[in-house]
Design goal:
By secondary structure, chain A is an alpha/beta fold. Chain A is 43% helix and 13% strand. Chain C is of the alpha+beta class. In chain C, 49% of the residues are buried. The chains are: A alpha/beta, B alpha+beta, C alpha+beta.
């Protein structure tokens, strides 16, 4: 069985074994070279592991792009209290579907990555916070974890190293905001998943008030490669500021949507036209959301020169985020889609901060009115101002995520809004 | 100042004013020090700060984002701007968000006039909101107990939820749902009944979302007069304000005093005020049943006392002030001394407030048990403040009763006394045989002090006009004492207190000025018997 | 490992109608999906990950007895305090009873020594906890952006029409409740539909009658 789509331009460090059911078993995984990085990490010592991850320049794959090694080095050097490693598998940014693939095809890769990270930050207990909807995924993962316990890879004496590494699969219950690291910690503590005010940062007071590190699934899945081959080898891919490979989740109006592992800095248009087989028959590119629905939309013009690295996408006017590339062709009804995205954030706002709680719902209602053909031109100014009031004023950045699609679409697709306001006419069908 | 700032303090500038505060102070508290009030909802000094209302955000020079002043601690040399354009536009924005779904029903809202949403929007909000969409409607919910919830007015500050969790230790409220659909609620029909401190959530609600059923549509906030006082319902002596209109108590509210009650009071005390408004009051001095003017009455009483035979016995209650108790004790001494007793009701148990251990509804259900004991009165009677006066009932000498309503006794009381003097506030069956019935004021109508369970002497002020010719008991007792001894008759409460303090070592050295509105601990707390 | 058959599905993710990929419908839907699940939750590390697959949910079912208690104790052992075990405990309760009634919340609160109001606050925060009874099959159609631009709304309409229900309503026979879902993280395989615990990917309106028929007749 072959993984749905692959492409010769891919560099498959993580996704090599996608589509191979045998890779999910411990036996199969070991046959594919698994569980060699963990003993190597124990040999290297935890400081060296952190150093290598720092040297690799691996940046957080959840969206913020914070260097993972630096994050680990924030943890206290001496372990006087329990440390926790929390793996963020609450994948719910619209457009993103990479963690689920990693977990259900290569669960042992994630387990190994987590074990190395737990060792590096001196955590004896690691939790993987899986999205509640991932029933099948968490079962595959749980089987892998059980196998790892059975083989002595996890447990009191992980691989005979003398280190205790426990791993628990935790299942969420449906809240996007639990993908925010402090919301995740609250949720894991059995609370409403509301983000916490920082400081204190998780490395000082995280889960249960103890030093904690939260890493994305893909970040941790990249760790075994770095441990085995060294930071320099990882830097062979990608750009200076964005080293390594990244799983790009391409969805929308391309012929072959899917996950493609490419070196960072890969040109966006090449991804769409070559790797994904181009746009659907007879359609042209209208816009791309390059990093999950919380980042500004790029229009076709901006896409042309855009390179898919953290800095490249910023230069093009957006952010790489979780590298969820949502491709929209000219059939897209931009007003409706922006309203849908805002509706998502209004639905998922935790309701703590006033600007987000009130603002997201308000913006959605204005957009719905425009969509129904009952808008006025003033509404566009109101939307711009109201979303500005929502930027940078809240505990977490969900509020900013409302502003990004609204503002960028009004700036770039204003004519479409105006047409809707003046004539009630739709531009696209979908 | 030439002092070197110690490492324990931090100096910063807020709106151009330099302020030095202890390390770890928040910007909001530091600003309060120099009189700058930063608007806020979710922050309350008695609760944790979730920093979620986003109203108290201020600009800190060099920081990319505005900082929540309720949570951000000060740093040396920090330059804080609370009313820069950035901070102002943030507040304007947040206030607009609050009004998107607010019903603007101020004309029928009890909070109107003391509402922080009104105040802040009036001060800094936009002139006109831009919301054109239909508003979300949640309606009204009975939370049980005295609390009524108006969801539409709620600003979701969650002070009430945090109070119940952190202070009351009785987590009966929660935020239900999330985002724009979130609303405060109880566990279905299990409300706040029986939660002894739940009334405080009405006080800390910055808007009209939580209102008191007892106070519902009773008075407008701006029509109420506020008088500082001390709760008379137990010996804790919570600092309170009497909110009065039309010479009636409309409600009692706690008054901040970190040494006694913090910001809180119990529901028992809060709702136990109707008796103060009783209308069956004694209004004129009665001499052998005949209404008389004060000069004549006092003259006759003085003569009767001087001629009195058979020894003196006196009874009072623990609602009497230190001034009244002290002067009664002095009067009895001047008449040759005799038995002095008091009665006071007592509950089975204390009712603790877990989150503020200083505060509890105490067993003694009267404000001045400690004061009565310090003055040397002996406690008699049962826990309902009944009985114990048998020795007085049949006393054939001079019998003086101050305050005690003698509720369970009939007209046979004091019938054998050679002289029976009753100083009270209410018409009293048991005083039928009294030769003198003199009307006195209640704590709400006069000035005085109570000594609480901690030994803290606390002042109260008059919030109501006394009915008819009623006078403070200390004034009457003081005038008699002045005639019997060579003391000076007190004409003001502070003079009465000074007289009492002079002859009470425990109160020695304290004056009304020391007590102020916060109270003062008695110098040498008396060693007392009993529990 | 011999019991790798317990890995309960074979759904590789299906990417489309382009004709380049030739899995059969049955392979895509994963006929063998409903596999064996350890009643008592297997190893504690994964105890919260195996949903109970019960033919019928029973709103009166005992929650913390027998194998359920064994499983709950395993869950509990993985967390530093009782509060942390709240989410998995609620999840377990819902699997058995189908939804979280006030009585269920109260029972969970007592078990974990939390206030019932607190438990209500937490359970209403998370959308996967049903606060009312649902149909035997809860059909969640993703209409978020990636599915929406590929026709998610049409799939939703097809489900509503074919079950003859309104959004969120339960069909008369008690079988189906159709709701809109937020992004299910299967954006490359639009439209994604989650029915109870299973993902159905690349669903088009014309697939809907077949899916419903199969659910009715085969119960999966």
């Amino acid at each position: 069985m072959a993984y749905p789509y692959t492409h010769q331009k891919e560099v498959r460090l993580l996704s090599k074994h996608f589509g191979e059911p045998e890779a999910r078993t411990l036996e199969g995984w070991k046959a594919r070279g698994g569980y060699q990085a963990l003993p190597r990490a124990f040999e290297m010592g935890r400081e060296k592991v952190i150093e290598e991850v720092k040297a690799s320049g691996l940046r957080g794959r959840g969206g913020a792009g914070f260097p993972a090694g630096v994050k680990w080095s924030f943890m206290p050097k001496e372990r006087t209290r329990p440390h926790y490693l929390l793996c963020n598998a609450d994948e719910s940014e619209p457009g993103t579907f990479k963690d689920r693939e990693l977990l259900r095809w290569t669960p042992h890769l994630v387990v190994e990555g987590m074990a190395i990270a737990a060792y590096a930050i001196q955590a004896e207990h690691a939790y993987i916070y899986c999205r509640g909807e991932f029933f099948e995924t968490t079962q595959v993962l749980a089987r892998a974890v059980e196998e790892a316990y059975g083989a002595g890879i996890l447990g009191e004496d992980a691989m005979g190293s003398g280190h205790r590494i426990d791993l628990t699969v935790h299942v969420g219950a449906g809240a996007y905001i639990c993908g925010e690291e402090t919301g995740l910690m609250n949720s894991l503590e059995g609370r409403r998943g509301q983000p916490r005010v920082k400081p204190p940062f998780p490395a000082q007071a995280g889960y249960m008030g103890m030093p904690s590190t939260v890493n994305n699934v893909e970040t941790l899945a990249s760790v075994p490669f770095i441990t085995t081959h060294g930071g320099e080898a990882y830097r062979a891919y990608g750009t200076q500021q964005s080293p390594g490979t990244k799983l790009f989740c391409v969805s929308g109006h391309v012929r072959r949507p899917g996950n493609y592992e490419l070196p960072l800095g890969f040109p966006l248009m090449e991804l769409i036209d070559d790797v994904c087989g181009g746009m659907r028959e007879g359609r042209s590119l209208k816009g791309v959301i390059p990093g999950g629905s919380s980042v500004p939309i790029l229009n076709a013009e901006e896409c042309r020169e855009c390179l898919l690295s953290y800095e490249g996408v910023v230069a093009a006017g957006s952010q790489l985020g979780s590298a969820a590339v949502i491709v929209m062709d000219d059939s897209t009804d931009m007003v409706k889609q922006v309203r849908r995205m805002v509706g998502f954030y209004a639905h998922e706002s935790c309701g703590q901060c006033t600007p987000c709680r009130e603002g997201s719902a308000w913006v959605e209602r204005i957009l719905r009115r425009i969509e129904d053909g009952r808008g006025t031109e003033d509404d566009l100014d109101t939307l711009m101002e109201v979303t500005t009031q929502m930027e940078g004023t809240t505990i977490c950045v969900l509020s900013d995520s409302v502003a990004a699609p609204v503002k960028s679409s009004i700036l770039k697709f204003r004519e479409e809004y105006l047409a809707r306001i003046r004539t009630g006419e739709k531009v696209g069908a979908a | 100042m030439t002092d070197q700032p110690s490492p324990q303090t931090v100096t910063l500038t807020i709106d151009g004013r330099e302020v030095t505060v202890p390390k770890g102070t928040t910007i909001l508290r530091a600003a309060e020090r120099v009189g700058i009030k930063i608007p806020h909802y979710c922050y309350h000094p008695g609760l944790s700060s979730p920093a979620m209302c986003r109203l108290c955000l201020v600009e800190v020079e060099g920081w990319p984002k505005l900082a929540p002043s309720c949570k951000t601690t000060v740093a040396d040399g920090q330059v804080v701007l609370t009313d820069s354009e950035k901070a102002l536009s943030q507040r304007r924005g947040v206030l607009e968000f609050y009004l998107v779904n607010h019903p603007l029903d101020c004309p029928i809202c009890d909070q109107s006039g003391e509402c922080k949403l009104q105040d802040f929007v009036f001060a800094e909000g936009r002139e006109h909101g831009r919301g054109r969409e239909p508003k979300r409607v949640l309606g009204r919910d009975d939370f049980g107990g005295d609390v009524l919830f108006n969801g539409d007015r709620c600003v979701m500050c969650t002070r009430c939820v945090r109070f119940m969790r952190e202070v009351a230790g009785d987590e009966r409220l929660t935020v239900v749902e999330r985002g724009n659909r979130s609303v405060i609620d109880t566990f279905f029909d299990r409300g706040l009944e029986g939660s002894p401190f739940a009334g405080n959530i009405v006080d800390i609600c910055p808007v009209g979302a939580l209102v008191s059923k007892d106070f519902l549509h009773k008075a407008r906030a701006w029509d109420l007069d506020h008088t500082p006082s001390v709760c008379p319902s137990c010996s804790q002596g919570c600092n309170i304000s009497l909110h009065t209109r039309d010479n009636l108590i409309q409600r009692l509210k706690p008054r901040e005093n970190l040494e006694v009650n913090g910001w809180w009071m119990c529901d028992f005390g809060r709702h136990n005020y109707e008796w103060i408004n009783r209308s069956d009051r004694l209004e004129v001095p009665l001499v052998r049943g005949k209404a008389t003017g004060w000069p004549e009455a006092l003259k006759a009483l003085l003569e009767a006392l001087q001629a009195g035979k058979g020894g003196v016995k006196a009874a009072t209650w623990a609602h009497a002030s230190n001034e009244e108790l002290g002067l009664l004790k002095a009067l009895v001494a001047a008449l040759g001394g005799g038995e002095t007793v008091f009665r006071s009701p007592r509950a089975q148990e204390e009712v603790l407030l877990p989150g503020y251990p200083l505060l509890a509804r105490r067993r003694d259900l009267a404000p001045n048990v400690r004061g009565a004991e310090v003055q040397g009165f002996t406690r008699v009677g049962d826990d309902e403040a009944r009985g114990g006066l048998e020795a007085l009932a049949d006393h054939d000498g001079v019998l003086v009763v101050v305050g005690d309503p003698l509720a369970e006794l009939d007209e046979s009381f004091g019938s054998r006394a050679s002289l029976f003097v009753y100083l009270g506030s209410y018409r009293c069956q048991a005083a039928s045989h009294a030769h003198f019935v003199l009307p006195i004021t209640t704590f709400a109508e006069g000035e005085g002090t109570f000594t609480n369970v901690q030994g803290r002497v606390q002042r109260f002020w008059p919030g109501l006009l006394a009915p008819g010719a009623a006078r403070p008991a200390w004034m009457i007792l003081g005038a008699l004492l002045a005639e019997l001894t060579d003391a000076e008759a007190p004409t003001r409460a502070d003079q009465a207190f000074a007289l009492v303090a002079e002859r009470t070592p425990e109160l020695g050295g304290i004056t009304y000025r020391d007590i102020g509105t916060r109270g003062a601990l008695a110098n040498e707390p008396a060693r007392l018997s009993g529990d | 490992m011999s019991d790798s058959s317990r890995i309960p599905f074979a759904n590789p993710g299906w990417a489309g109608n382009t004709g380049e990929f030739d899995l059969t419908e049955a392979q895509v839907r994963g006929d063998d999906y409903v596999g064996e699940r350890p009643m008592e939750g297997g190893h504690p590390s994964g105890a919260s990950s195996y949903p109970y697959m019960l033919a019928e949910r029973d709103p009166q079912a005992p929650l913390f007895e027998g194998p359920y208690l064994v499983r709950w104790e395993k869950l509990r052992s993985r967390y530093p305090d009782a509060r942390s075990a709240l989410l998995p405990t609620l999840g377990m309760a819902q699997e058995l009873r189908g939804h979280l009634s006030p009585e269920t919340m109260d029972e969970v609160a007592r078990l974990l020594d939390l206030s019932p109001a607190y438990v209500r606050g937490v359970s209403t925060f998370y959308t996967m906890y049903n606060k009312r009874p649902m149909g035997r099959f809860l059909i969640q159609v993703c209409t978020n952006i990636s599915c929406s631009i590929c026709g998610g709304d049409d799939v939703l309409t097809a489900f509503l029409n074919n079950t003859n229900t309104e959004l969120g309503e339960t069909s008369e026979d008690g079988n189906f409740t159709v709701i809109e879902a937020e992004c299910l993280a299967a954006c490359g395989f639009p439209t994604c539909v989650q029915i109870n615990s299973r993902y159905y990917e690349n669903v088009t309106p014309k697939d809907v009658p077949g899916i419903l028929e199969r659910l009715k007749t085969q119960g999966k």
